[in-house]
């Protein structure tokens, strides 16, 4: 069908960090679990319902358009994919510079084995800033492929859980990551998501970055966190704990954004999703 990969495969299939096209499979250990409340340390953005809602709106429409084309012309649908799912396909899209944005679930379970899931997630995030390019080595007198900085980074958006991502795309397999390849016709939805994600990244920077040491400076680094229960009206909803932490350079615009994040209710709770 029009699920993005053309097959109903899991996210961990067929890729190692060093060689994404290798035949070796990433296998999730039996004890690996992914909590809907978990926010991994790679999420350098606030987890907020405005981003989640915008992500669902975009992905649902992309899935509808891709499925419609698949039903009309399956051959053309394979050549004109709107999105791809899974770390293997997303890594390939990044390496070929076809990805326009990458949406990553905030609760990918931790698997730290060599060339395991954590390594591949890190590689995908790295490829959003770097691209492979053939460079001539004067010393060795031959061309070799190196990672060089992109002129423009591929936007990285942290939204939804793995289960919510799969539901948005009507997939049976849980989905860790999606690459948007073509948003023609849904530009407004795409730019809405990009704007919400930027606001959430700015909010994260105000709250987390002043206390974090990046690189090899030896200071504290971000740890994984858990969404916390927060009462809105008569409901208790899950929110990012960083929202309850005072941010640096707090201004009226930031205060208004925070109020919007805390006062509006998300579509569902972590338990329901």
From TrEMBL:
Domain Ribosomal protein eL8/eL30/eS12/Gadd45 span(s) in chain numbering: 75-114
Gene Ontology molecular functions: mRNA 3'-UTR binding; ribonucleoprotein complex binding; selenocysteine insertion sequence binding
Pfam families linked to this entry: Ribosomal_L7Ae (PF01248)
Alphabetized Gene3D superfamilies for the sequence: 3.30.1330.30
Source species, domain of life: Eukaryota
PANTHER family found in the cross-reference section: C2H2-TYPE DOMAIN-CONTAINING PROTEIN, GH01354P
Protein name: Ribosomal protein eL8/eL30/eS12/Gadd45 domain-containing protein
Organism: Calcidiscus leptoporus
